[in-house]
Design a protein that fits this description.
alpha/beta, six-stranded mixed sheet, Aldehyde Dehydrogenase, Chain A, domain 2, Aldehyde Dehydrogenase, Chain A, domain 1, 2 domains, binds nicotinamide-adenine-dinucleotide, seven-stranded mixed sheet, 454 residues, globular
Length: 454
Amino acid sequence: MPTALRVLNPATEELVATVPAAGAADVDAAVTRAAAAQRAWAAAAPADRARLLRRFASAVDARAEELALLEVAEAGHTLGNARWEAGNVRDLLDYAAGGAERLNGRQIPVAGGLDVTFLEPLGVVGVIAPWNFPMPIAAWATAPALAAGNAVLLKPAETTPLTALRLAEIALEAGLPEGLFQVLPGTGPVAGDALVTHPGVAKIVFTGSTRVGKAIMAKCADQVKRVTLELGGKSPNIVFADADLEAAAAAAPMSFLDNSGQDCCARTRILVQRSAYDRFLELLVPAVEEVVVGDPLDERTQMGPLISRAHLDRVRSYVPEGAAAVVGKAPGGPGFWFPPTVLTGVAEDAPCAVEEVFGPVAVLLPFEDEADAIRLANATEYGLSGSLWTRDVGRALRASRAVRAGNLSVNSHSSVRYWTPFGGFGRSGLGRELGPDALTAFTETKNVFISTEG
Ligand code: NAD
């Protein structure tokens, strides 16, 4: 197992940093520190917790450009995306801070006394994050967990530990207590597994592949450890013949090319009603070809490189040799580049049509009618996101209810807002993050009955 993590710039393949990898003993020591910090934090007044989290949000805001540039360097994100990501961390902290003061229990009518519920913090929460959105995904769990009175141990992905480490420093500068939010860079099988199996960690929030998520869920069962899973996706983009085809075709490329397709919500299955298929394809070709792929630091760039050479090879393996495809542009030379690609004429059950490629590759498939569209949309083991394009309000509602996915959008591709719930059906995950109830996922409900008879 490596004792250090080598962080490469995916656009240049240059070494950005070398970071010592945490081992099981480091995790154990961090749990001890976190448990002590958590007891004091949970006992603090909710308004004090809220104030410190707002300070943390302001400190992130003040360093947003520095964090964005770090994300560009370690993850190859476009500068525009990276700036949005730093702002998202600020907003998540700010939104969760208000929750600390609104973590209300209930009063339930009973005979002979008073019945109330309390939302108690869990204790120490382990957050295991992927490399595709290192900052926002770490903050999705960290912000509400802290606001609800927990301590957080964050294990970032092997390839992207730098923004997480910087966020932990900023938290201390903002006044968060020592030990309350610690970052443990390391490998999944060592540092990640140590968090999953440690009896002092009350909950794991895991975002990553379905394969690793299933293994973590099984290990958590041993201690009946709480778990939230945000896993893979293979989301449909359903275009009915009555839709605004120009708008649907113009929006389709970035719905699967944003972040180079390394997005669990990427709309990589473009399903088009057969009667509109030829027209849609005609409109899609220039839209794909015009996407600007290149230097992430150039503000005009819309798509950057993939995260690593190994991932590039994996993405390439999904594209059959000589397949019919609409292909965009990509730079040559160093860096992990793959061009925007829409495969046509593939079988509905081909690996590229049902498995998560996690790269800038989509398939275009025809369907006959509404029932056929729903059948095709639901024909994967996943259920994370999806979009529908139609001018028929009734159809939009019927189809929205029929597609088995946690996050749908009609005549748009938006799916993630920090103030609306997010999560997957089926093998896309378990539990929900974000939204008005985000804090309750980091609490246990305790019911107390107080007799008035004595
Ligand atoms: P991954 O499963 O390989 O790794 C994710 C994290 O788990 C990393 O930090 C890794 O070190 C850790 N890990 C690996 N093995 C482990 C083990 N045995 N024990 C504990 N931790 C372990 O996933 P990835 O390639 O980094 O991320 C891409 C995946 O994440 C895609 O499948 C994508 O769809 C998914 N994703 C899902 C969402 C969502 O919200 N549903 C969001 C983003 C990404």
